[in-house]
Amino acid sequence: MLFSLLALGLAASYARASHTLRFACSQLVTERLDPLVNPGSNPSPHMHQIVGGNAFNVTMDPSQDIAEKASCTTCTFSQDFSNYWTAVLYFRARNGTFKRVPQLSNQNIEGANGGMTIYYLSPDNKTTPVTAFKPGFRMLAGTAEQRTNNSVNLFRCYDGYDAKMNYRPNPMGVATTDTTDLPQKYCAGGIRINTFFPNCWDGVNLDSANHQSHVAYQTGADCPATHPVQVPQIFIETIWNTGIFDKSLWPEDGSQPFVLSQGDPTGFGHHADYVFGWKGDALQKAMDARCDVYDASPDPLVFPASGCPQLTTQDYAVANKCSQKQIAEEDLDDWGMPITWT
């Protein structure tokens, strides 16, 4: 299905934003916990993949600064102890059992055990201040229950990739072939999912009951009056290795066999959670400088590791060593039905 109005707006925002902070985060842990939507539940209703700081836990007490609680991060920037997590993708076999789809590494984290690429976008207009998030801030993009097309996600089907994890076809920005639901064809090079968070804040509340009402998406030239504070627009990118499940394994009627961990075969229910955890004023300094990876590379297809001298980078080998043992212990890779349908 082609773009919804919201997705078109997000795509336009992405295209307009010339200031792009882009960095890699390898996998921290994959487990059935969701301290934002289901705090205290062990296990939570469905599986998530998590990157970022190792202070991730069952409750994520908002009164605690997780940048002070974490001892390492899986992200490129050593000051970012935030946590980012999304649903997990599964392959549904003809006999009704399920297998977790492994992730592919994004560019700049070759060799990592999965992970995500994180973007912080700020507007072209340098006179518009961009306010960094505060300790205790958290938000949700999309909902697990969504089954109709008002998606905050864009899906891309790749035909293949090379040794440097350059995926093809991979036009810059948003392609007309991108969809807001799961691709209906075989994607030998994987399925990419980009999930966009709101970029306007009410300026008061660090959270809300549904983890969404305190923030809003910008749909015009400025943030709405109800949410007047411009914050960086986060979007996260994950690539799933769907190519290992070739067409001989698909349902006999040819229907696409992938389903998200909350039991969603459409893709509209793909969602992402964010809990702020940057150290001190590091993120504000990056926003004030309007850090941009394109400033560090004249080639728009080549993304450097950093592109932000205001922040401190760590080697990928160091980031990859930061991991966390499952709290809700579960075998991730057995065939079975590791899904709670919602």
From TrEMBL:
InterPro entries referenced in this protein's UniProt entry, alphabetically: DUF1996
Keywords for this protein: Signal
One Pfam family hit: DUF1996
Asked if the Swiss-Prot or TrEMBL record annotates the protein with the keyword Transport, the reply is no
What are the boundaries of the signal sequence?
1-17
Q: Where is the DUF1996 domain?
A: 34-278
Q: What is this protein called?
A: DUF1996 domain-containing protein
